[in-house]
Amino acid sequence: MVKKAIKYYQVNPWAIIEKGFDPTRSMASESIFSLANEYMGVRGFFDEGYSGNSLIGTYFNGLYELPNKPGNAGYKGISKKSHFMVNSVNCFATEIYLNNQLVDLAKGDFSDFTRTLDMRSGELVRKYKYRQNDNLVEITFKRLLDMVNYTNAYQVIEIKVLEGKIDLLLKSHLDYAVKHFGSLKPWKIINSREIPKGFRVLSQTKKSKQNLYTDEEIIVNSGALTTVTDKKQNLSKQIVLTLTKDSRFVLEKRLSHLAFQGEFINCFEDRLEEIVKKRVGYEEALKSNKAYFQKKWAECDIEIEGDEENLQGIRFCIFNLFQTYRGISTNNIGAKGLTGEAYSGHAFWDTETYILPFYLFSDPLVAKKLLMFRYRTLPNAILRAKELDCRGACYPIATLNGDEACELWQHASLQFQPSTGVAFAIWHYVHLTKDYDFLLHYGAQMLVEISRFLASRGDWNPDGTGFGFYGVMGPDEFQMMVHNNTYTNYMAKRTFIYTYEVLKWMRENHPQEFEKLMQKCTLSENEVDDFLTKAQKMIILYDDNTCLFEQHDGFFKLPHIDKNTISVDEFPLYSHWSYDRLYRNDLIKQPDVLMMMFLYNQSFSLEQKRANYEFYEPKTIHESSLSPSIHSILAMELNKSDEALSFFSFATRLDLDDYNRNTSEGLHVTSLSAAWLNIVYGFGGLRSDGKHLKIAPKLPKNWERLKFKIQYRDRTIEVETTKTDSTVKVYGDSLELQIYDQLYLVDKLIKVKTGG
After folding, report:
1. Whole-prediction pTM value?
2. Nearest to 157 by CA among 49, 54, 24, 52
3. Are residues 129 and 227 in the same domain?
4. 182, 281, 436, 468: least buried by Cβ within 10 Å?
5. Which residues 6+ apart lie within 8 Å of 600 measured at CB?
6. What are phi and psi of 341, to 5 degrees?
7. Does some domain include residue 20?
């Protein structure tokens, strides 16, 4: 790998610490120091403003806006339903004037800058000393999003005079003039009124007519707040004070938000009132957060001995997965979570393949809620299939609300990873949880409609001996309009087979539910049999002699480019090569055949994995941040530990060390989960696609100890491994587990030699 780390933050097992401020790292740090609680998210921008590079971003899960211009009005099937997660009110906006001079770190004289994100509480603290001639003050900013009462947010600003005397003017704003994508101002104030110590404001997006109802309360330790009306779209309170040496001014802002769609009715006023009545102060909210995170870390912490950087890195990943999603909403997970505007807040097929396993093994009920998003948006997927001249349900490549938001036809119309990914996730969830009630009432219907889409989108080869998919794009997005992409065909084959098996099981064990489903989907026995026939006749490009799966028809005949001959300054290729040039060679963006072997790992022999890894990895340039982790997991299984460690080297610290030089756009949420996969599936040897859960830990050479916990069928499994011994503990009823190559009935604890 040619990507290099930018080592900027202090190494600490439980905190992200910035000492000193580098303006060139300002926007990346805003992403790193983002806070979220699934309901809302706020980037780590400066409360007091900053005239240097900055992306001020506050986002509410599920609130989106529509573009000013309608979507592409071109050919049939090209999506016209673009939408994007919308930047919302900046409720932390503050102006601080010291002796009539605005505090701005881009221009002022400051020292002793520190910024700390505590991963055991979710508290963000930033402080510095600011000099103005003979005057010196210390300014501290604290920020918190409530993890329990998740509609609430808090801000504390403390100003202490160390030298001299200061005339202070502080303005605290609710700023609705925020910009999205750098220029668009999406909000208008519908109604506002002053309330004791603040404002209550109803605002609405201009195009999508979505609403945010906000209540603020500002408490100061001295002086009196007055109202300011000097800016449009900006509701402000100010305070004027004179501060002498050793005096201390403290402002605490308490905020409650209620996001909703549709017309405003009185019940929303009542709901906000109830929220405000239960709102507590900063210190009490901080105490509540600490208790919340203590419980979460006890359930799924990872410990690494011998590698402090990656210990910090994986905890940063897990912490942000805690922040991003916990099942309180009805939404999916955007590729940037609530940390930035890249990818427009859209969810991709990553959710079901990369992200879901973390939640499956930390809180299966939360994982179920992610699947329920796909069930609720099944009507949208059915409509999308019709737009593509197909039957059944085609899930979108990019979406917030269930509609296809991607206007790039080569992705939206050719990639079926979301649909087969949903089918895989249904199987994976039921396989691990035995939640057959979900399968009966939700999963089976999705499987039928996905299979129906695949059956209508695929076709028979000229002599009618094989069924496959033509004009598609697999996970490797450097190959477009290809035929019989092996990943696509194989995942469809498994979807057909699983759907057939589920329907057979329902017919035999739940005949009434089976008949209801047949009627609801207008499904015939012939169509069910057709699913199995097409699975049995699926074209899978495989050579028994070489054990190689050809990525797609003709891939082996493509011109070869040695990736090592490409200069570093040409990466990323998307930015430096003409678009069509990407498709004219055998370079691979990210795992395709190997992705299939990761998802259905135990369906392939070690010989097949080795042959395909050694063939495809040298051609893969890892243009996607998701790519290295999958390669690391397979490399570790193949005893290529040096390669596994090399790929892993930036998995946990992709954003912390800004390997891709784009952390400024927001965190790579899917990569955060991929890093967890890399450790638990890679070095922990977890395999979850076989008859029994398999655990086969192996340590990379520089680690002394690895310990992790997973939740599985109402039990906690704790795995601890050293160079010599591996211990598996089961908290709860005994459990049959495969440890390395042997099956054990584990009752409390079993200890084996590392490596089996």
Report:
1. 0.96
2. 49
3. yes
4. 182
5. 490, 494, 689
6. -100, -5
7. no
